[in-house]
Design the sequence.
């Protein structure tokens, strides 16, 4: 009796319903008709992790279909590690075409001359042409990125070539801990501007080799908006789909001159922005970006790490269409309350808003107020031994709730730890430490996904 094989579309639909990596492997061995689609899922995410890395951008993926290759520098040189990868997955073009998410943590800048001179041609070992998400980490620590010669010799060509080979498919690009010369950064940003589908850009520890770049001019040191010429040059770029931008501890000159001025890609179309404030040195570049984002920005995330934020830094920044705001901090102090005061100040300003579309799910706008802010999320990681004035925090939260007319809810993820273990969390933690704000009914426990991290 001859069995009729269903159409390939039906078989592919069956494979798409399988979530377990183990089941996908078993299914691929069942019949050759299941192999192509199973491979498409099994090799959708590849992570090449060589040397050390941190957890800031989630290099340890929890996705079920992830192929992770890890090696320590002490056990294998980087060139040998990449050669081993070529001899396994990369030699099969059907596998490399299935990869849509690639994470590279190729940290070889340890001063070993053998590691610096063995680097092969980037085209040989990274033959990916269908990437939708690319995340690269070039150094293990802040001090390691001063190894400029190694970075310029092989890391920069690899990154540039990968971006160019995926210019029509790349949607998410993350560059982490990279120190380059000024011309190299100009080539990187020009290449980013040519990406047709780029939606999300993450820059973390993007540094300049020279502290006095030649493209810096006197007018760029101000915090004002871009000039007419700069707006024109930026609007000519092709990165028109860029909607989400994350900046963390980058060179202020890069953020001010290359990003805030829209020289390479326009900021006017951004609807989501995340900034991590870690030091006063990096602050002015991030503030420049925040001042120059377009009026379409609807979501803003600010992560404060041991930096004093004055309300005066934010006073001149107005975001009339902001509907979602997220604040992350490891303490409850004046930094947080300065942000609260800025949000309240937004509600006292008046803007001209166009009539809302009756077909959307957004409630009719109250023209007696200016703020469109509807959702606020707070993430606080506190220590029970810290001297936190919870009464003051409760008062500030209550004031924030009562001052924003359209506010629907404040979701808060507050964790109080003691001796390294979680002592308080969830709804009980909110009700105990912020009783007045909790009684308003607008404060609830909840988490918000970090969109800048790959899953």
Sequence:
């Amino acid at each position: 009796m001859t069995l009729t094989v269903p159409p390939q579309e039906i078989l592919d639909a069956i494979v798409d319903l399988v979530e377990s990596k183990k089941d996908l492997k078993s299914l691929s061995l069942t019949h050759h008709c299941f192999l192509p689609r199973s491979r498409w899922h099994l090799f959708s995410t590849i992570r090449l992790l060589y040397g050390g890395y941190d957890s800031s951008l989630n290099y340890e993926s929890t996705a079920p279909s992830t192929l992770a290759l890890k090696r320590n520098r002490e056990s294998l040189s980087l060139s040998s590690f990449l050669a081993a990868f070529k001899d396994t997955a990369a030699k099969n073009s059907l596998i490399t075409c299935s990869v849509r998410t690639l994470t590279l943590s190729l940290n070889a800048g340890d001063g070993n001359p053998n590691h610096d001179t063995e680097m092969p041609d980037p085209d040989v070992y990274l033959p990916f042409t269908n990437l939708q998400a690319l995340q690269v980490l070039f150094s293990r620590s802040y001090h390691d990125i001063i190894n400029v010669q190694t970075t310029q010799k092989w890391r920069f060509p690899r990154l540039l070539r990968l971006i160019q080979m995926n210019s029509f498919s790349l949607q998410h690009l993350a560059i982490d801990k990279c120190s380059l010369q000024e011309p190299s950064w100009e080539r990187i940003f020009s290449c980013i501007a040519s990406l047709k589908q780029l939606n999300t850009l993450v820059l973390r520890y993007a540094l300049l080799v020279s502290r006095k770049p030649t493209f810096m001019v006197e007018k760029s040191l101000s915090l004002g908006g871009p000039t007419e010429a700069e707006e024109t040059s930026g609007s000519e770029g092709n990165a028109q789909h860029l909607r989400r931008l994350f900046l963390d501890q980058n060179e202020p000159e890069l953020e001010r001159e290359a990003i805030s001025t829209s020289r390479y890609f326009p900021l006017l179309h951004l609807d989501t922005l995340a900034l991590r404030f870690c030091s006063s040195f990096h602050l002015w570049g991030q503030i420049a970006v925040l001042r120059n984002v377009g009026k379409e920005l609807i979501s803003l995330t600010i992560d404060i790490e041991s930096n004093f934020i004055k309300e005066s830094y934010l006073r001149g920044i107005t975001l009339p269409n902001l509907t979602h705001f997220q604040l992350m901090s490891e303490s409850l102090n004046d930094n947080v309350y300065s942000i609260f005061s800025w949000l309240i100040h937004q509600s006292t300003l008046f803007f001209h808003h166009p009539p809302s579309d009756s077909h959307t799910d957004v409630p009719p706008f109250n023209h007696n107020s200016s703020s469109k802010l509807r959702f606020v999320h707070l993430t606080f990681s506190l220590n029970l031994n810290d001297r936190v004035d919870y009464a003051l925090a409760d008062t500030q939260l209550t004031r924030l709730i009562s001052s924003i007319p359209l506010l629907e809810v404040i979701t808060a993820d507050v964790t109080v730890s003691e001796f390294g273990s979680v002592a308080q969390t969830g709804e009980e933690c909110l009700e105990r430490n912020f009783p007045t704000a909790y009684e308003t009914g607008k404060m609830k426990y909840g988490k918000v996904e970090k969109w800048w991290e790959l899953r």
